[in-house]
Amino acid sequence: MSSRTSSERSTAPRTIGRRSLLKATAATTAASAIGVATAGPSRAADDVMTDVVVVGAGYAGGTAARELSAKGLNVVVLEARNRIGGRIWTDTFAGRQIDLGGSWVSPDHTLVTKEFQRYGITTVPELANTSSVMPAANGFQTLTPAEAGARMDGLLTKFFAGSEQYFPRPHDPLYRKDLLKNVDPLSFRDRIAQLGLDDVDTKWLAGYTAAYVGGDNSRGALTALAQWWALGNWSIEGWHNQMGFKPTTGMTALLQKMLAGSTAKVRLSMPVTAITEQYNRVRVKAASGQVFNAAAVVVAVPVNVWKTITFNPGLPSVHAAAAQEGVGVPLGTKLWIQLGGQVDAVYGQGTETSPLPMLIPERPLPGGGRMMIGFAGPSLDVASKTAVQNAVRQYIPGATVVAYRYQEWHKDQWSRGGWGLRRPGQLLKQLPAIQQPHGRMVFAGADIATGWNGSFIEGALESGFRAADQAAALAQ
Prior knowledge:
Blueprint: E1 7-10, E2 48-49, E3 52-55, H1 59-70, E4 75-78, E5 90-93, E6 96-99, H2 110-119, E7 123-125, E8 131-135, E9 140-143, H3 145-159, H4 163-166, H5 177-180, H6 188-194, H7 199-213, H8 222-231, H9 236-241, E10 245-247, H10 253-260, E11 265-267, E12 272-278, E13 281-286, E14 291-294, E15 296-299, E16 310-312, H11 317-325, E17 333-339, E18 346-349, E19 358-364, E20 370-375, H12 385-393, E21 401-408, H13 426-430, E22 441-443, H14 457-475
Parallel strand pairs: 2-14, 3-4, 3-15, 4-11, 8-18, 12-16, 15-22
Antiparallel strand pairs: 1-21, 5-6, 7-10, 8-9, 12-13, 13-14, 17-20, 17-21, 18-19, 19-20
């Protein structure tokens, strides 16, 4: 990015395709030349001509670009940031590789598994915790992982009860649309209230779901999580597998390989301000003033970012409503926290109002200390080291925060929110219309995926494959 929103605190200091090549452009991650076609009725003298423009170099955009170039089309990818990946961001901190965005994959992610096999990427299981600190009637209690797991698994089973009926085919979520009419309007908070749990169980379940939605359980749709549960075969094992494995290379590596193996030309630091369809072509204008002229465009930025682009003609009603309401979690802050001394692999889960609703242990660091992953609630001042340390000490008394790194995705101008998570009612309002082309504009992204919607690169891949087919039909 041109302006990073993540921070640290420390106590220590092919030829080019079917058209003629007229000029070359630099500053790409995948290549150094872009093909420009002969002039047409809608072309300015300095327009860059291509077959397809892909807006956004995250996993959806990267998948679409690779697939379109494999079909013989000339593809230009425009990325606002100075890096690829979008809400996936592999970086380093405290001498180790970290992911500031999405981190986990599951064996149930069939598209991701196939891509990992294609490029020789391996995964490692998530570290098992040695103890669990959970809410009590007053404060917190320390339990064995088996004790905490049995109770939490029972609560999740209750929370998702009935999903076998309303999501019998989770890859076809509208199959029982009739049953979803009474379920899709429910928020996490609504569903928890339906269960009639005692005070402690309510704290456990509400604290758990709060970590998924940035602290506000009225914001998340029951159907969003219930579909993930169904995609994991309606099982506790499938649910835990969602955060069960990490690629050894970091989350961005697969995307790098996908783009490097394509003929797509990636232009970084190139935010798009306007997309206009005219004369059976699409003109994509960048903030720099440069215009890219194509037969089709794939809009592969988060739904929350759509409102920053001027579309002409304007967006269809379903797209406009989604852009206005938002899909990405409004508060999405992930922290990597370096603790000093001897620290056990403690898993901490708070209440809905806790400053850190979830704290996850990572492997110990060479020379001592341990890295932890935290997800912030609204009450945590992430800029204050004291506040972060106090939040950690709710789970690990006496813990010393040596340094930490955080990413506030909701303050990132190219994300405007965290991971995707549907609001109540959005499933039925959006699918399948939000996945359809609008003239020569095609839309992609995990936010609008059919299956693993929102928080998973599996959904981004699914959406990217679909968008590539749609754009190819327009560009051929």
